[in-house]
């Protein structure tokens, strides 16, 4: 038997987790749908004209507000010693347990939440048009929004958006493997401290050292705005994403060995 990843064993693990949390999941999804619908109803009922692009901020903010904290509480069994012990005793490999949390906490939200948003937005649109027939509301269409971007930039825009979201999720996901209590808050505090150090660094080299004086350029301003630079930045983002997830896997593996 494959001790790293077995699809049948993984299926049984998925079924077991669904049996344990299926009702909670259904309740959570119903609550999200109601919350989305109420917020979007307020938006549509207070605007006689809504262009398609105006849906985008709601799409990003609402989905991110749920997806990011959700990733920060991956591996819920790690929140207590007793549940951690039970989780480690599950007859599955570390890879299978890690993959399950990766799918549920990072990938699934960006499949389920856009669908809920799509349904809620169209329900809110139809109700607003029924109540205010004179309104001019363009329905939400994510691909129609992307189609307004120049064709040459569309690929880079989609990849950049996906990688940005995944990196944020992966960092919070990793924080859940490091901190037992309040992983979201503690991870955000660490990120805030790191961001402060980076900002202070740039403040020193730009402000105090006068790096731009006499035509000098700092290392971060050398790159030109061309396709090669974009590919380089995408490569850096992918490396950062894989490194973060690799560290999270190491943390889970470490708990099982310990």
From TrEMBL:
Keywords assigned: Membrane, Transmembrane, Transmembrane helix
Highest taxon above the source species: Bacteria
Coiled-coil regions listed: none
Membrane-spanning intervals of the chain: 20-43, 55-78, 98-119, 154-176, 188-209, 229-250
Protein name per Swiss-Prot or TrEMBL: ABC transporter permease
């Amino acid at each position: 038997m494959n001790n790293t990843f077995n699809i049948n064993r993984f299926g049984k693990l998925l079924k077991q987790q669904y049996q344990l949390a299926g009702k909670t999941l259904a309740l959570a999804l119903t609550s999200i749908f109601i919350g989305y619908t109420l917020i979007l109803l307020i938006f549509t009922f207070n605007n006689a004209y809504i262009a398609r692009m105006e849906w985008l901020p709601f799409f990003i903010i609402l989905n991110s507000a749920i997806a990011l904290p959700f990733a920060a509480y991956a591996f819920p069994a790690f929140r207590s010693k007793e549940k951690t012990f039970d989780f480690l005793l599950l007859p599955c490999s570390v890879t299978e347990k890690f993959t399950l949390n990766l799918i549920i906490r990072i990938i699934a939200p960006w499949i389920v939440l856009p669908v809920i948003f799509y349904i809620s937005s169209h329900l809110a649109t139809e109700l607003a048009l029924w109540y205010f027939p004179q309104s001019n509301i363009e329905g939400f269409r994510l691909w129609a929004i992307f189609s307004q971007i120049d064709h040459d930039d569309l690929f880079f825009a989609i990849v950049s958006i996906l990688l940005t979201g995944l990196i944020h999720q992966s960092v919070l996901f990793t924080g859940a493997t490091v901190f037992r209590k309040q992983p979201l808050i503690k991870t955000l505090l660490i990120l805030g401290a790191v961001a402060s150090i980076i900002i202070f660094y740039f403040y020193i080299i730009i402000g105090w050292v006068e790096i731009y004086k006499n035509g000098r350029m700092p290392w971060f301003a050398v790159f030109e705005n061309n396709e090669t630079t974009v590919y380089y930045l995408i490569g850096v983002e992918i490396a950062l994403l894989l490194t973060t997830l690799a560290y999270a896997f190491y943390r889970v593996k470490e708990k099982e060995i310990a």
